[in-house]
Amino acid sequence: MTETAVRDALRAQRIEVPSWAYGNSGTRFKVFSQPGVPRTPEEKIADAAQVHAFTGVAPIVSLHIPWDRVDDFAKLGSYAAEQGVRIGTINTNVFQDDDYRLGSVTNPDPRIRRKALGHLLECVDIMDATGSADLKLWFSDGTNYPGQDDIRARQDRLAEALAATYERLGDDQRMLLEYKLFEPAFYMTDVPDWGTAYAHCLKLGEKAQVVIDTGHHAPGTNIEFIVAFLLREGKLGAFDFNSRFYADDDLMVGAADPFQLFRIMYEIVRADALRPDSGVNFMLDQCHNIEPKIPAQIRSVMNVQEATAKALLVDAEALAAAQTAGDVLGANGVLMDAYDTDVRPLLREVRADLGLDPEPMAAYARSGYAQRIAAERVGGQQAGWGA
Amino acid sequence: MTETAVRDALRAQRIEVPSWAYGNSGTRFKVFSQPGVPRTPEEKIADAAQVHAFTGVAPIVSLHIPWDRVDDFAKLGSYAAEQGVRIGTINTNVFQDDDYRLGSVTNPDPRIRRKALGHLLECVDIMDATGSADLKLWFSDGTNYPGQDDIRARQDRLAEALAATYERLGDDQRMLLEYKLFEPAFYMTDVPDWGTAYAHCLKLGEKAQVVIDTGHHAPGTNIEFIVAFLLREGKLGAFDFNSRFYADDDLMVGAADPFQLFRIMYEIVRADALRPDSGVNFMLDQCHNIEPKIPAQIRSVMNVQEATAKALLVDAEALAAAQTAGDVLGANGVLMDAYDTDVRPLLREVRADLGLDPEPMAAYARSGYAQRIAAERVGGQQAGWGA
Amino acid sequence: MTETAVRDALRAQRIEVPSWAYGNSGTRFKVFSQPGVPRTPEEKIADAAQVHAFTGVAPIVSLHIPWDRVDDFAKLGSYAAEQGVRIGTINTNVFQDDDYRLGSVTNPDPRIRRKALGHLLECVDIMDATGSADLKLWFSDGTNYPGQDDIRARQDRLAEALAATYERLGDDQRMLLEYKLFEPAFYMTDVPDWGTAYAHCLKLGEKAQVVIDTGHHAPGTNIEFIVAFLLREGKLGAFDFNSRFYADDDLMVGAADPFQLFRIMYEIVRADALRPDSGVNFMLDQCHNIEPKIPAQIRSVMNVQEATAKALLVDAEALAAAQTAGDVLGANGVLMDAYDTDVRPLLREVRADLGLDPEPMAAYARSGYAQRIAAERVGGQQAGWGA
Amino acid sequence: MTETAVRDALRAQRIEVPSWAYGNSGTRFKVFSQPGVPRTPEEKIADAAQVHAFTGVAPIVSLHIPWDRVDDFAKLGSYAAEQGVRIGTINTNVFQDDDYRLGSVTNPDPRIRRKALGHLLECVDIMDATGSADLKLWFSDGTNYPGQDDIRARQDRLAEALAATYERLGDDQRMLLEYKLFEPAFYMTDVPDWGTAYAHCLKLGEKAQVVIDTGHHAPGTNIEFIVAFLLREGKLGAFDFNSRFYADDDLMVGAADPFQLFRIMYEIVRADALRPDSGVNFMLDQCHNIEPKIPAQIRSVMNVQEATAKALLVDAEALAAAQTAGDVLGANGVLMDAYDTDVRPLLREVRADLGLDPEPMAAYARSGYAQRIAAERVGGQQAGWGA
């Protein structure tokens, strides 16, 4: 790839940020509140817009319903546009009502299943209002004890709800199905792995695609294999980016294993799926429990950019030659040459090309935004997972 | 072991229950409330007393400070006695104050370290008031990102706080140090494994002992090895029993891997550490997120009893003979013979000997206690991790 | 299920044993040889026949090519019949030739891919000769280093080889595709999980089915979920039974986690897939590195029988009622009641019904077979993985 | 640290290479032989000397007994000196004799324990002859099945053998005890974790130190924590460097997770333990199953150098300031700044300073050594784990 092509690709890259990253989050042990945390969807969007303002590649904000429910979504969209961003994926939430103690769409109780499905369909209504193209489905459904419920019957119920939701999608709308190994269910999760999500999506049709959350796998899982496999099948719809050392830690993407993130982005580049129109949505999904949220999002975007830049720098021709020759160390060496490169100077230039400060973290710190929101956002209820 | 000795051991067995198991608990995603959940330390003790009333082997209740702080601990002790139980271990909590965002006793800020130490010392005061023999220390301290703090400096701070607390202990008081691999810290935990806890306890002295929480290990860890090793070293102070499939799931002990629980109890029996005066404290530490709490505690006590009964039934002589002979399948077979035995009839007899209903779950269900507390405990603030 | 139905099911159960379990095996550190180990396919079959003679449910022997290649497979089949058993699945081996250093069917070198495919096709020829219905495919193919080869190109090559083999199958022949997370490949494996195997089998057609080797998963994987899911999809072709604490330990099935084996067998029973004509093949695939091989196989068969008996004893009606009612502890209790039952007396009766000694281990030990083969099998080359 | 100090440290760094890395190795599935593989200890040393010749920091070769047993170790030492290297650590092997099927120093059979101890003592004799300072002890001892042997009794036997060996050490000799979670033992390993090794070493005395093999941990273990902890305790004696994605994969160090290697080296630098006289021995212990061995060793040395260079570049003052201030992102950012730096130019300069070619891989490839040994080493028995 020519250097121009690399820069073009980096300038065109799009990373979606989640509205909930700017609210409070934590563990079951404690949610630490932070000064200046948003209290409304508008304030979340304003914060998200800061991330785009300083990075230039994050102009899309995902919403989470009901956390971001407003009376007038068109108005929220206009507000977003004023801030320089737009509304992206609609994320459903069927895990925070007392009714969902034993599951939502897979609950043994048909009344609760209907309620959950109603929420999913409502979210498609919201998509119509916001012009969102993607509906993200993550189900916390599962069981905590062997025998608690019937594994197979729950699949039947899941399939039914997915089909009903799929049916409701408009022509330009997609359904993105996320899998997760465990948490909050601790024995069995109804969509635990990519195979399950893939099998359901395959039956539903082309508008159903799989979401890879990089923190939702068993230890030792080779995530870039899944990326490559789903791309080959035309079934990779989106990423939820974050990083983890142990479970679903939801740390900043690239913080735990930057080499893994590079390998993932390499598979994206190799399959020409970086293009904004590739059908793959690159979203952050993280919890900034102890660090300030806007800087953490900026840093995360930068981490994705660095991994991408390195992936773009892989000498594809040399790599293919070494691979074909069975030159194990040579092929590995080509990949590592790109990874070992310091791409920060290149990214500083890309930012300058975009008319941005080459150092987003420092520029944001200097902007005084953090101090301003801390001073202004007094009173009210800080946003968090429960609100 | 003669059948009489087995029954004697089972009747004499003591399992400690935690006050917080009767309050609400959950995951970061949702805490589901349940009807009848206690609102005060007294109501928690009353519920714990039910577990003892139906099992006969759970007469001790652990407190958690500040969740169970009362003005008059002597009075709380009298209340417990009236309910037929007594107050046991005092569990400290230095993880739920906003000050502890970056740690408690290992926090880089000396003011916060002093505050955390103050809490530990206050808990020894409470032990004096309750007559508790054991102080349980679990630190959520750690870091989420590489570089966030200095690993070694944090050990220095930890050692200092431990020494100051140890100093404060009375002659008949012990300090029990718990380790945990991760959560809520996601990169590095200051006491992540038994080796760390052991090394600190060794330096502190005889009154410092290690706690094994069965859910706090990396995947694949052989917990019974740690049990055997610490018993050999005279450094096993207590268990926090629960079970897990993935992380620190805090499911009912014995629910995820009953064979593992049996192997653990076998090492206890083999080292003659089941006796109530052995210095090993057997406590439950669980979260009943979706199941009713009192029955879940009863079931957990029963699971420990069943594993213990099987462990007591191991034919020690035959086992030793097969081991000495290098008879791999024979020795494994001796152990499995005990495990494969259905010990429920034996335990029904043990309960009858104690004047109890042989079927604790059914007896509790028939008692109407659940309905009574659901009806009576209206209003007020249900107890939970945050209160 | 009536007691008669339970016994009928246990008598009708069929477990396939692998010829290679009777040869030497070990780890990369050491293969310990044992006296009496077979030197020829015939001697392996003779040993396998002992397992059937003492258990009555293991009349089928899998072959492994080239380890069990003979000039006249019809004659080998007759020999098996004389021993009271028959030849079952044909297992392919494309991992032990120097050519396969960088893979077999996914090798970057087309010459080696052709060679590997030739072996697969030859194995179908052998199936024609033996009358085997199932071709088992396990590929050790993968890479050790990132960049070593192209993940996606290897999938293309894999798909091509699978299609060519599928094409060659006769009307009553099936292709069983096994997946494995890692080993011997240490970075990426070409068929690492059930999703990959499932996706390929789906495209190939009805005669392609997935094999679940119980030791081939990442830590924490819920295997019974995969069983239930594949049965619902009609895509579960076979098991390779064994057990593990860490990696692919290949210990005796049921030895590491008997509760897990029970949960797996429960899903089988629940889907009515225990029947010999269900299309699910239950095979042992184990390495008896330090224990004597024939007794270890007998014990393994017994372990599967015990798990099956417990699964058959689950009170389906009570379970469904508790599940429908959302009674978490009740439903779990129904499952545990079956698991906690001592089914050894029942299995002794089933054996007596079959005209067998109720205690297979003791009966085999008394038979003198072990002493006889140790005395007779002197000289020659003991069978092992390399031969 | 000044740039001069960084270069000085890099020039002074010492990495020990293992004689067995140049022999054949593999998995239980297959050992692929390679052309030119050494047949004698001398040839292994000659190959190891190549690694030093091209990197300048690897002048020490570990021996493995009995694989490297010779009649005259003084002569072998002289041969090494002629090649430009010297003999380092003596590695014991008590896992490859049929007698060790059920263990060596922990075997239930006292005769076998004596034999194993005899080997350990013989290795100290060899140390006397070679002038080696370190005796490396790794025991494959453990059990495959629960009940197979008594966990605690095996600890007693282990302690006895360690004490007898310790007793035999000369004043300037050390004993390095390695731990490993599993393999080849699959249920319980007698020295499974650092805590066990540490506890034994503590009792033995100052000459007993712990070895960290980077591939010997449970998934999710924070290895740099162990490094920091043992350094604080003065008990870290040596590393066995390699890398892994799954189990003990024994890939090239830094190949699987270069960021982890950097974090480990940062703890080394932070504790001033990089100095050759720090008492910490940095050794490679790897298996080059599919890649050529000498280049793989050179690449591994380079990987350690790169991680070290980055660790040396960490701005210690800025890091401490951010840590003290509780600036999570700032502190992490300081660490990442060093990690993100491309240190290959710096290392090229360090090599030039040493009079070496700045590109060791290319220089070795050009040297023709690989072709020469492939041509010359014809006939004889290639070295491997079994010889």
UniProtKB/TrEMBL annotation, chains A, B, C, D:
EC number, UniProt record: 5.3.1.-, 5.3.1.14
Keyword vocabulary terms for this entry: Cytoplasm, Isomerase, Manganese, Metal-binding, Rhamnose metabolism
Pfam families: RhaA
Domain of life: Bacteria
GO molecular function: L-rhamnose isomerase activity; manganese ion binding
Swiss-Prot/TrEMBL GO biological process terms: L-lyxose metabolic process; rhamnose catabolic process
Enzyme class name: isomerase
NCBIfam families per UniProt: RhaI_grampos
Stated name of the protein: L-rhamnose isomerase/sugar isomerase
Gene source species: Plantactinospora soyae
